[in-house]
Structure formats: C-alpha cells, structure tokens
Amino acid sequence: PKYVYDFTEGNKDLKDLLGGKGANLAEMTNIGLPVPPGFTITTEACRHYLSHGGMPDGLEGEIGEHLAALEARMGKRLGQADDPLLVSVRSGAKFSMPGMMETVLNIGLNDDSVLGLAKQSGNDRFAWDSYRRLIQMFGKTVLGIDGELFEDAMDALKGERDDTDLDAADLQRLVETFKGIVRERTGRDFPADPREQMDLAVRAVFDSWNAPRAILYRRQERIPADLGTAVNVVAMVFGNMGPDSGTGVAFTRDPGSGRQGVYGDYLRNAQGEDVVAGIRNTVPLQELETINPEAYRELLDIMATLERHYRDLCDIEFTIERGKLWMLQTRVGKRTAAAAFCIATQLVDEGLIDMDEALTRVTGDQLAQLMFPRFAATAGNRRLTTGMNASPGAAAGRAVFSSERAVELAGQGEAVILVRRETNPDDLAGMIAAHGVLTSRGGKTSHAAVVARGMGKTCVCGAEELEVDPHARRFTAPGGIVVNEGDVISIDGGTGAVYLGEVPVTASPVARYFEGEPAEDELVRAVDRIMTHADSARRLAVRANADTPEDAARARRYGAQGIGLCRTEHMFLGERRRLVEDLILATTPEERQAALDALEPLQTGDFTGIFTAMRGLPVTIRLIDPPLHEFLPDLTDLAVKVALAEERAGEGADDRDRRLLDAVKRLHEQNPMLGLRGVRLGLTIPGLFAMQVRAIATAARRVEDARAEIMIPLVGAVQELEIVREEAEGILAEAGVEAAIGTMIEVPRAALTAGQIAEAAEFFSFGTNDLTQMTWGFSRDDVESAFFGRYLDLGVFGVSPFESVDREGVGRLMRIAVEEGRRTRPDLKLGICGEHGGDPDSVHFCHEIGLDYVSCSPFRIPVARLEAGRAAL
Ligand code: PEP
Ligand code: MG
C-alpha cells in the first residue's frame, strides 16, 4: 500500500486514511488556500506500527521521497546549515482529539542550522526561540522528559519578565540549559541529525495514540480504539518572527450561539501551541484588523470560502509570518448544543443545506443538554467574578484544584467544580469527573473550553480576576474573598458568572417549550423547526414509560403518542403496602379475596387517572412484575424488631410482625430476579392478575376513549401466556371491554420461541433491561458499579449494554423475535420499553429492525422523537 500522501493528493473525504487534519489540509490545498506544503503519513502505517511494533516495509523510503520532493520545492534541505528547511510533525486522527496526542515543531534545528536560520531571517532572537522550543517539545513528547523541568528552567530565567522579553542571549543560554536537561535525563545528547529528529518524532506521534489520556478521551467520546492516527509533516511557517508575525485560532461562527461574526483569538509573536495552551493572554481576533488589516481581510475571505465549501461552521488555525497569512488547519468545528440547532437552521435559510440535512446536523444528546435546567435567581449569592461563557449549563459543587482531587471527591459522590489556571490534556480525568470547569486563563478556544464544549460540560474560562493557587488549593477573588478546596461555588456557562455558594436552578427555555410555551427566541424556534421536521420524517412512534397521571400528562405534552409501559407495582407502595402485606399473609381463600377486594378500587382509581390523561391514545398496562418480598420489610430489620419485642415482653411480640417475619423468610430468594416474579406470580397467586384486569376494565369503561392494552411480564413459554390470556379475556368479555393482550419479550426463551408466543399475543414489547440481564447473565442491579469500568477499559464493550442495545447479542434475539413473531402474526405490534427506548443508538437500531414504537421516560421523549426522525433519513 501507499503510506504517504502529498497534500496535493488527498481530499476531505479521506479522513479514515489521512486523519481529519491531513484530509482537510489536502482539501484546503486543492481549493487554492495558502497552506504550507507537506505530506501525510497514513493511519494505516500507524496501525501497522502499533500492531507489529515497527514501521511497515517501504515506509522509510516513501518518507524519504516525499521529503526530497518537499526540499526541492522549498529550495532548501531539512536542517541545511546555512538555510534550513524546518518542519512540524503533527498528529491527526480521524476524529479530533484536542491536545490528546503529540506535535513537535521546528524539526531540523541544531547547533549549526540555528545559526543559518538566524542569518537568513536576520533575527537571532527568533532563531534561538525556535531552537529552545524544539528541544523543549522534543524533550517532553519524544524523549518522555517531565515538561516541568523545562518550564521551571524557563521560569527561573524569566523572573518577572514575559517570555517575549527574553532576548537572543537569554534564549541561547536557555538552549544550553535545555540540552543539559536532555543529557542528564536520557544519558545522551539531544539528537542533532535532522532526519533522526523527524523519524523519532513520527514514532512518538504514533505512540501517543496509546497514551493514557488519549485512551481516556476515546472512551469518553466513544471513539474506537483501533483507528490509529495519521502524521502530518509540514514545512514550518513562523508566527514568532517578531511583532508582524503571530498565530491564532478562529471559528467561522460563534460556536456557542451560532451567530455569525468574527470569533477567535490572536497572539502576536508566538508559535503554535501558545494560543491553545493559554501561556499568554490572547487578544480578540478583531484586533488583528488594526494590527494587520490586509491579513485580517484575507482571513475573513478564507473563512467565508470555507463555510461555503464545507457548508458548515469551521474552525481554523492560522499563522502570520511577517504579514503573510498561512492556514495550518481547518475542520468542521465543535459547537455547543444550542449552536448546533441554530447553525443548522441558519444554513437552511442561507440555502446551503436542506431540512433533511439540518436534521442530521443535530443529535438527541445535544437536545437533552438543552433541556438541562439553569440557574434561577442568583440574588442570594455573591458574584465573585465573571469570566468567559465557554460552555453552557449551570453547575454547582465543591471547588477542587487538581484533577486527582476531582476524581477522588467525585468518586465519593460529591459534585465538584475543577478550578485551574488553565487546563491541559493531563486534566482530562478531572474534567470528566467534575460537574463544571473554571479557569482563570485562556480564551474561548483554550483547551478547557474546547474539551468542555465537546463533553457538554459547563465551563467558564479566562476568569482573570481570580488568583488561582493550586498548591495552596485555593483561589482569591476580587475583594480578597478566599475560596478554599471544598467550598461550594456555582458557575454559569451561559453568562460566565461565578458565584459563591450553591445557586438554585430553573427550567431551560427549551424544556419550557416542550411544556407548551411558545417558541420565542432563536434557539427555541430552531428546535421547533427541527422537531417538526423529525416528526414528519420518522416512522417509529414514540410512547412513554409512565405510571402516574402527572407523568402521563407531561409525556403527552412532550409529544408521547401513548404509554408503552405502565408499571403497576409502583402503585402498591406507600400506604398501600399494608394491603399487599395482607395479601401475602392471607392463609385462606377468603382472607386473600378480602385483601384483593381492598386493593381493587384503588387500582381502578389509578387506571382511571391515567386513561384520562392519555384519552384517545393507547395505554399499555403491565400486570404486576417484581418479587413479592420487595413489598415486605427488610428481613434483618424485622427480625431485630421481633426479637426486641420478645425480650421486652416475653412472648408478647406483635403477632402480625411475627407472621410477617415468617413470610419474609418463606419468600426469601437467593436470586430474586430469576425467581417468583412476573407471570409466575400471576399463575401462583390466585386472583391477583384477575383483580388487576378487572380494575383495568372498570376504569376503561369509566373513561371515554380509553384504549387499554394489557401486558404480561416475564413470559418464557406460550403456555404461561395462554393461561393468563384465557382468564383475562373472560373478565374483559364480562365487562364488555375490548383490550389488546400482549407480552413483554424479556426472557431469552421468549425471543427464541416468539413464533409460538405470537399465537397468544397481539403485541410484543421488548423489555431490554431484563433481556440484557438474562442474555449476558449480568445482574442489572450489581454489575455496573462492580466491574463495568474494568470491562470498558479492557474493551469487552465500548458502552454498557444496559445503556445501548448490544446489537450482536441482545439485538440478535430481538431480530429473531421480530421475524418469527411477524411470521405467525403479520399485524403483530412491536415496541420496546426497556431503558434503551430513549437511547439514541438504540432508537436507530429499533428503526432498523422494524419496530412500530419506542417507549421511554417522559424527559427522553423529545430525544427519541428527534432520533427516530434521524434514523428514518
Ligand atoms: C425491562 O425489563 O426492560 C422492563 C421494561 O421491565 P422492568 O425494567 O420493569 O423489569
Ligand atoms: Mg423487566
């Protein structure tokens, strides 16, 4: 295979092979934008290197040829002593992983070529600054030396000065110090051979694919672990050549709101990573108009070209070398959830995309984020400062000052806000653990901002008035207010405000829209348009899991087309528990019937309320499911109570308690999820299911337009269903009520014998919670906290099968049930009511296998509607 592509050979559709950066550099090159020449080493080469522990045959030679071509084009050789070509070696995977992998700049410098560079540029300071940067980056990323050693040495030299105040002599001295660090730490000299520098840097980039922070980031973002990264070798252009040079990052639209306008940061006389790393504070991009009007106008033109070309918001990195603009990167930019909706509809209005495409540009996860609550009145809280509103949302928690501490406290169930001067990729674990991120330095394109936006995590950055002291674990706000580790603060990612103490939260405008408020602001109008389009595109109906009239009513406001699961056991708790105890304690048929008779009117009332809230829409009521002992007191508590009472009063313990204790012991199960529950209860406790069916029938007669469906849980054999069905049909006929009778498919045997079960069922509803539990043999109540973390690390699965349907295993059973069920009964109605019904990926799967509806919790209904629409495109 061909392992190396010149920028003129690639294009934006080759991301799998060239990575995002390489593919887009090629694309920009080909549309005539000013990109420094270079080439890309493919992800395929990386995958070979990682799996075989060495470079593939032929790669070396190919790199040599492309380097020679680059040298010929530039008229100078890599590291040539009197006029060196310098290159950067940059990582670039298919999916952007901001700052997670390595990049080395200024490759080709050594003790000789630094003099050539100084002479050619007429700028000693610049040459030595570039050389010290090379040793520093190379030392840290390629040779694995602790970066702080270099930073400390530089800080010691700088004293109170800025890095731009260091002169050529200072920097030359720093180079000697840095070389000393390399010698001391690695036992060898900094490699002077330019090609060796380049080859080692390429390997380091490949290796960085498996750096711990990269692995963590991929897991968080669900990026497959086996893609590998490409490597881009690019002729250097220099932003650190003096005041007429600089480097910057920009977005073609505001990634927070979608509004069009100039949005970016610029840093004069600086190179590459300085901007994102927040080393010095940047200036807003608008100031470039004053600094260099020509480059500014060219940049705006290029941004417009890119938006038209990509038909989307793009972000860019650029460098200005002595007034000349160069493009170093572009990609379709990350954006906040709000901006995603706004931009999608803006692009429709600008004629760049149609509504179908707009629907593909947003996700259910983004919609869910927009439904998050935000801060209510903040009057009672002291505002400490206002930083930049880098990633929206509202978060309150204890201030922590290191990633480790964030992870530790979050592990104890505490909400934490990670407070840093600036974040770097090593803070990733803490950012994931924290509810929000607050930094005192860096702009809206800083690492903290970009990563937080990608995660949908609240972030306020660049709150410059705060003095953050990570060693003392505290920060000081204006007015001398000190916030120590553990003190509660609240941050508003929408406004940038930082408050002392916990601020109460309120519903978001998007949530209020789903509650029925009119669509007034731009975002809500955009959501409304896209939801309307999703509803017209989707084939799947969306129902709710709800078992109170209030939940049913909310679900209906959110667009539910019925109830897919009403869990009746939730109606037996609270004060009614005693009636269930009576049922369990009954020793004669008369006692049992009396207990059931007491429950029936209550159940009738429950169903009446729900049918009323859902008038005209189908309501699937599931007969009682969980093991009975769940309604009884805890064995230990009760045993202690009985023992104490007996001790106090001889034999005088309450007789009911003693009988209860006997019942608890009798009903105790080693493995209750596999025990006496679901249809098995119905077949062993006479009258229980009949009572429920009668209550349904009575309620259905009371409410006009009630559409009851009766669902039997945990069926594994058609015989179970037939027995229950016969009794239920009798009761319904007697009451003169029509109701469909169907079953859950949540035991693997039910899926495997679906053809038979469909003889007795008018509908199936996949109970994927139990179906996953029983297919994997994973206790749904225990395993996620016990060992799923390890399983995710080991790559047994990329996401918990309780979150997203395991397509190969559980999904296979579902396919079998769909196919064989429909073969028996072509008009069999099919749905899903496990938690997966509100999970975006699972909704797509349900669409693919031909279900009729998904059912999920009321708050997930909008997400399911949106994803069902996307699935249908
Ligand atoms: C299921 O098992 O997926 C289901 C919906 O039932 P429950 O969660 O009540 O067991
Ligand atoms: Mg179940």
Automatic annotation (TrEMBL):
Give the enzyme class: transferase
The keyword ATP-binding is assigned to this record: yes
Pfam families from the xrefs?
A: PEP-utilizers, PEP-utilizers_C, PPDK_N
Cofactors, names only: Mg(2+)
The segment(s) forming the Pyruvate phosphate dikinase AMP/ATP-binding domain are: 53-281, 287-338
Quickly give the catalysed reaction.
pyruvate + phosphate + ATP = phosphoenolpyruvate + AMP + diphosphate + H(+)
Keywords from the UniProt entry: ATP-binding, Kinase, Magnesium, Metal-binding, Nucleotide-binding, Pyruvate, Transferase
Describe the location of the PEP-utilising enzyme C-terminal domain by residue ranges.
526-869
Which residue intervals define the domain PEP-utilising enzyme mobile in the entry? Answer: 414-496
Write the Enzyme Commission number(s) for this entry.
2.7.9.1
Q: Which InterPro entries match?
A: ATP_grasp_subdomain_1 (IPR013815), PEP-util_enz_mobile_dom (IPR008279), PEP_util_AS (IPR018274), PEP_util_C (IPR000121), Phosphohistidine_dom_sf (IPR036637), PPDK_AMP/ATP-bd (IPR002192), Pyruvate_phosphate_dikinase (IPR010121), Pyrv/PenolPyrv_kinase-like_dom (IPR015813)
Concerning Gene3D superfamilies, the annotation shows: 1.20.80.30, ATP-grasp fold, A domain, ATP-grasp fold, B domain, Phosphoenolpyruvate-binding domains, Phosphohistidine domain, Pyruvate Phosphate Dikinase, domain 2
**NCBIfam families given for it?**
PRK05878.1 (NF004531), pyru_phos_dikin (TIGR01828)
The Swiss-Prot or TrEMBL record describes its family as follows: Belongs to the PEP-utilizing enzyme family.
Q: What is this protein called?
A: Pyruvate, phosphate dikinase
